[in-house]
Prior knowledge:
- This protein is of the alpha+beta class.
- It has five helices and twelve strands.
- The chain folds into two domains: 1-148, Thiol Ester Dehydrase, Chain A (Roll); 149-291, Roll (Thiol Ester Dehydrase, Chain A), CATH 3.10.129.
- It has helices at 22-40, 44-50, 131-138, 179-198, 277-289, and strands at 3-7, 55-66, 77-86, 91-100, 106-120, 125-126, 161-164, 207-217, 228-237, 241-250, 253-266, 271-272.
- Strands 1, 2, 3, 4, 5, 6, 7, 8, 9, 10, 11 and 12 form a twelve-stranded antiparallel sheet that branches.
- α1 runs antiparallel to α2 (44-50) and α1 packs antiparallel against α4 (179-198).
- The chain starts with a strand and ends with a helix.
- InterPro entries: 4-hydroxybenzoyl-CoA_TE, HotDog_dom_sf.
- It comes from Nocardioides malaquae.
- This is Thioesterase family protein.
- Pfam families: 4HBT_2.
Amino acid sequence: MRHVYECPVRWADLDMLNHVNNVTYVDYLQxxxxxxxxxxxxxxxxxxxxxxPTEGLVVVSHDIAYLAPIAPRTVPVKIEVWVTxxxxxxxxxxxxxxxxxxxxxxxxxxxxxxxxxxxxxAEERPRRLREDEKEALAQFLExxxxxxxxxxxxxxxxxxxxxxxxxxSDVDVYGHVNNVKYFEYxxxxxxxxxxxxxxxxxxxxxxxxIARKQVDYVRPIRxxxxxxxxxxxxxxxxxxxxxxxxxxxxxxxxxSRAKVVMVFFDPHTQRSAEPPAALMDRLREFEALEA
Length: 291
């Protein structure tokens, strides 16, 4: 069984391309996941899994493939959410963000997968799923394997460094930075790297959109005055795409890692486009430098 959540699209969700920003999709997944638990298990099982003051599900990893943009609208976008794997101490959920046309066709905007684990916040430790929780989740169980993006080797280069300051508003009720904010952090760190690569040149009206993003959560990030470090590097350059990998670190301690596949995009045709040769040469220079 799949749960369907109707998610409102807010004006503030839009980016400069007049599409819902890629970071906001993660917020939509979170809303759909919580709605599923509270709708179908409206008791202690949902209370603990959806989030209580003492316990809740924390995200271990996100994997999102962006297929079609979500434009401004007055009607909600639909999100199907279901379970693809239940293990002793984790659950994997899958999502499809979509619209249905008048003829009954489905337009899929994104497909995603999230791995979560139950967590006891007072003791700062994960725990195993209880049998009643497994029972509540099992009604949504379907098989849906998700391909995994392989990552390159971390390269901490000065050109790819970004100083990350955590805002007080980034922190959730559990005292940790909310999982959605990590997507914002990686976006903030990636933009200056791409600006340095393009060297401030006009790229003939060709923009960049996110095709796929994968984020792993290794250790929690907390609010503090001292900044964290984000390191980013170009790991692959295709004919119409570029892959950037990043890590958030506290000194030598890895907190989170991400891999983002970006596609060059013509806003007039709304299709992928080949970027200027000079930009591709610069990207390949960075890829070779960091290999």
